[in-house]
Amino acid sequence: MNMKTVLCASILLLAVLICGCTTTNAQNTVAAAGTPDLLGNWTGTMKGYDYGTGFNDYSGYTMTLAVIEQQDRVFSGEVSFTNQTGSLVWGVTPFAGVIGRDGKAITIIENEGGYSSGSLIASDEMELIYADGREPVSIAIDSLKKS
């Protein structure tokens, strides 16, 4: 009876070890798929809230996120805002960003203080949540497509 117990325990241990050695980690699978290429212009709309002003859909304005450089998951560029005639509204602001290990999460910090976090929805579409804690505080949802 004791020999049967040892044999059963050995077989069970072997089965657990085999299963553990042959499964793949989901994060490794995503990393193997490659880093998304963000280079180029991403344009779109914004909706947000500015303290003292209230809710705003920024109608008539277009946001452009120009990704100029990218090395692996780190990228940089400039963000600008134009009106319906294409005239620059708020100037050009440098930024730097990173792509998360999952290949979808994005975090961006702007040179003048604000930051964004969001995700790639598709290879040519992203949504960012912009936040700026300086007075007056501001928050917005940026919906961008690669052009």
What does this structure look like?
With 147 residues, the protein is α+β, with helices and mostly antiparallel strands. The chain has 2 domains: 2-31; 33-146, Beta Barrel (Lipocalin). The chain is 20% helix and 52% strand. It is built from 2 helices and 9 strands; from the N terminus they run H-H-E-E-E-E-E-E-E-E-E. The protein has helices at residues 2-22, 26-33, and strands at residues 40-50, 54-56, 62-71, 74-82, 88-99, 105-110, 115-122, 125-132, 138-146. Strands 1-3-4-5-6-7-8-9 form an 8-stranded antiparallel barrel. Strand 3 (62-71) and strand 4 form a beta hairpin. The protein is globular, with a radius of gyration of 24 Å. Mean pLDDT is 84; it is low at 21-32.
CATH class bucket of the largest domain? Mainly Beta
Low-pLDDT residue spans:
21-32
Distance between the termini: 72 Å
Helix content: 10-25%
Helical stretch count? 2
What is the CATH superfamily classification of the largest domain? Quinohemoprotein amine dehydrogenase alpha subunit, domain 2
The amount of beta strand, in percent, is over 45%
What is the β-strand count?
A: 9
Mean pLDDT, nearest integer?
A: 84
Number of domains: 2
The CATH architecture category of the largest domain equals Beta Barrel
Strand pairing plus helix content: what structural class? alpha+beta
- Give the CATH topology of the largest domain: Lipocalin
